[in-house]
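Hi team,

Filling in the usual template for the complex we talked about on Friday. All components are listed, including any nucleic acid strands or ligand strings, so the model treats them as one assembly.

SUBMITTER: L.P.
PURPOSE: interface mapping
COMPONENTS: two
RESIDUES: 760
SEQUENCES:
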Amino acid sequence: MSCCSKSWEEVQAAGRAALPESVVEYIEKCRGLPHPESRLISVLHKVQGHFGYLGREQMDAVAQLLQVPAAKVTGVATFYHFFRLQPRGRFVITVCMGTACYVKGAERVADRLREELGIDFGETTKDGMFTLESAHCLGTCGLAPVITIEEGVFGQVTPDQIPGLLEKTIRESRT
Amino acid sequence: MNDLKWINLTIDDSPVRVPPGTTIMEAAETIGVHIPRLCYDPHLSLQGSCRVCIVEVEGFPYYMTSCSVEVAEGMKVRTNSPDIRRARRDIVELLLDNHPRECQTCERDGNCELQRLAYAMGVRERLFEGERKTFPVDNSGRSVVRDSEKCILCGRCVRVCSEIQGVHNLSQHGRGFYTVVTPAHGANMDDSVCIQCGQCINVCPTASLLEQNHTDLVWEALADPGKHVVVQTAPSIRAALGEGFGLEPGTPCTGKMVTALRRLGFDAVFDTDLGADLTIVEEANEFLHRMKSGPLPMLTSCSPGWINFLEKFYPELIPNASTCRSPMTMTSALVKTFYAQTTGRKPEDIFCVAVMPCVAKKYEAHRPEHRLGEIPMTDAVLTTRELIWMIKSYGIDFTALPDGDFDAPLGIASGAGDIFGTTGGVMEATLRTAEEKLTGRLGRRLEFVEVRGVEDLREAEVKLGDHTVSVAVANGLVNAKTVLDRVMSGEKQYHIIEIMACPGGCVGGGGQPYPPPGYGILDPRLLAKRASALYSVDERRAVRRSHENPALKVIYDTFLGEPGSEKSRELLHTSYSPKYPRGIK
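RESULT (copied from the run log):
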């Protein structure tokens, strides 16, 4: 990689090509304001809003266009829980790992999901269908253990219900 | 000072009177109380993350970090109450609980700040056994090796990289237990904007950052009867090597160093100062051409960290950089051509070792530009630290050694070569030669004190006969940025700019010994002492102008031809190219 050479214009052009026009415009606006580097988090929110996650190419583009060191960009992106570094699947499954859910067997539900999907928390299936996430508490402890699939909330889930729930989700996505 | 409202407080019952704005830690130092610390350094910004420097302040229910809290009138501070001693010891214990128990096999055993601190705090047993962070060692870098398991997250490397070097390569990534210091995207050092200067190694309190070790390569070559092993030493080695053996900083030890290298088994001991003299002669020739046809300013090219910075951060200025290879690579090139020919050896039978104050030299030695066909010009690069270890490991009583002399002809050098090791030295050496080349008559001046000093950035207008040469000297790349931005914007015009990547120049290089007792990291007093050793060596030399070095005359007459000849261009000059990832200025 260190063999490649790019002129400044090429670096800038590559940066602009990696981001949607609205984000490029926003960054340019920030550059005109005092302390443009302080807008890093809001720029990253916009990038994630568009792509669903922060890709390496996009973070490098933000660094070059906003003129913030790349290590700073990735430092911030990896610090905050909200920022995602992997593409998001079509359906995000969130397992509540709060105290009540945990006591009621959330770990076993999570194990079954890991097994069925072949991925760990924070990962996405190869076909781009599912992303598995954990939450500290979803605030519906009475339904423990709880999982959500996108907007749908499922309570008192047992590991054996998992294959059926996944199939139902895939089936409904086709109609 | 009289109209200042001084602050009165007590520290451990002793009255202290200091100006407002003084921190508790600084106030304690004025009465000889050294509060333990880890992440704090006066040359870097405040971080306050290690909590080792906590003190008790009467009236406050919590402990305060003395590095960051400013004194107030009537404050009563306790630095060593039983409670604070226990709390401080607990903090260090907790750092150790997440640190590998590898002291005996660690590169920094006996030279580790964490180890020293744990001893001083009275940690004598490990109370907690739990999960420890696990990270793979990044051994991929040509210069810098990163072992995040040994990292205690003090953040000094992050701060030196951004605040002193302006490179911003390192940052803390992730959070909590999983926090790790890496370049962007967790990349390897060589795939990042790292310029390989090694200042992160110098400021690391543990062995989390180290140079890529070449000692095994060297032992192996020394033991190989088929290899003719030669060594060259950079100017600044003689100014710092003694520190490794308890000598007072600033003690020049050229003679003992040469003898030690012979005892280690090197077949010939040469002086990189000769390469420095060659650099000056070639650079002066190049400069005269540039005076006629540009581009100016000419930027010096001796510091490999700076060259990496140029290629990643200021590729627009590549045409301004002198095409001269560094003194190390020039010397190596001559070892494998001129020396090989005159001694009837094949270049591939010669193993060329360079002892450098620098870790970027390890990267430089590996560059494809610095090869002779299939073989590298320089085979291995040892830092000053690695050489100290080799001498100790061999059981050599360094301080008792008699003085030795470098071998001819590649060990013959002028005083101008010696001062290459300190900031401003290359400039002074250049001016000594340029005077004669520009005016066409014998030089009158030897010492150009206006370019001396250890400050970050110096400018001068130097009169050489009828010519006025405008020069700038910068060390530490944040200062280089300042000068280069002035050049880019057209705000200032210079003829020559000397840039050294490391603070103080090579005397403060990333491969130099860790500070001896009584000195801190990035300590200007230590840098000035090392620099003064070089000026004293220069003063005692019979020949102090590079172009008057008698060995150079022989080399040019019998081998190279003249400065700038085709052969010189092939062996002594190189080219640069923009590199990616591009750094953010």
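MY TAKE: Residues 1-5 of chain A have pLDDT under 50 and may be disordered. Chain A is about 50% helix and 10% strand.

Thanks, L.
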